[in-house]
Design goal:
Layout lengths: L1 H20 L3 H7 L5 E6 L6 H5 L6 E6 L9 H13 L4 E7 L3 H8 L6 H4 L1 H9 L1 H5 L3 H21 L2 H8 L5 E8 L4 E4 L13
Parallel strand pairs: 1-2, 1-3, 3-4
Antiparallel strand pairs: 4-5
């Protein structure tokens, strides 16, 4: 219980410090949410969206799951995506993976881990798709490369949803970004150019 009390104490101290610096911060925050960014990232506790981008509460809408997967059959991520695009009118969707991802590592090793194996099936498919390249790398480099491929493919999944296709068709300006975070440096890298329009169905 002492650890939980610590969390509550930390919360009070944080809220007090925010109010001291900006007295109307919470009243403004309570009245509207107008983020320009949707962050789709990994659930890993070492990758907090607001902190590593220096954004305040209310500035980024966040969805996180194991290995930052965007499955077209996952109504959770689709609901977040539609709300962000259709209601909040975000301008940027950030697909953010991280090197050393445990979910990607589990998919790469292809060892049974339980129910999580079903969730990681799309990443196991990527492992098979890039099998020849990955087998030519060291285990650490293969993991890093599969983490990168995962981000790039999840960005394409977002672009191919009817949510994004419809938004672009009505002239809404939205860019999908493929980013990856390195835990041991705290730095984000850009993996590719942003996707700003419907993708060629043959790609």
């Amino acid at each position: 219980m002492d650890t939980l009390k610590q969390l509550l104490d930390n919360n009070r101290n944080w809220a007090d410090s925010v109010i001291k610096a900006e007295p109307d911060f919470f009243s403004r925050l309570a009245n509207q949410q107008t983020p320009e960014y949707l962050w789709i990232g990994c659930s890993d506790s070492r990758v907090p969206a607001n902190q590593i981008t220096g954004l305040a509460p209310g500035e980024v809408f966040v969805h996180r799951n194991v290995a930052n997967v965007v499955a077209e059959t996952d109504f959770n991520v689709l609901a977040v995506l539609q709300y962000a695009v259709d209601v909040l009118k975000v301008k940027h969707i950030l697909i953010v993976g991280h090197y050393g991802c445990g979910g990607v590592k589990a998919a790469l090793e292809n060892v049974r881990h339980g129910i999580i194996d079903n969730w990681l099936a799309p990443i196991r498919s990527l492992r098979r798709l890039y099998k020849e390249e990955l087998e030519g790398l060291s285990p650490a480099d293969a993991l890093d490369r599969l983490c990168e491929y995962n981000v790039l493919h999840q960005a394409k999944h977002v672009a191919r949803t009817t949510i994004l296709e419809d938004a672009w068709a009505r002239g809404q300006e939205i860019a999908i970004h493929s980013w990856i975070y390195r835990l041991d440096t705290g730095r984000i890298s850009v993996l590719s150019d942003a996707i700003k329009a419907p993708m060629d169905p043959n790609i």
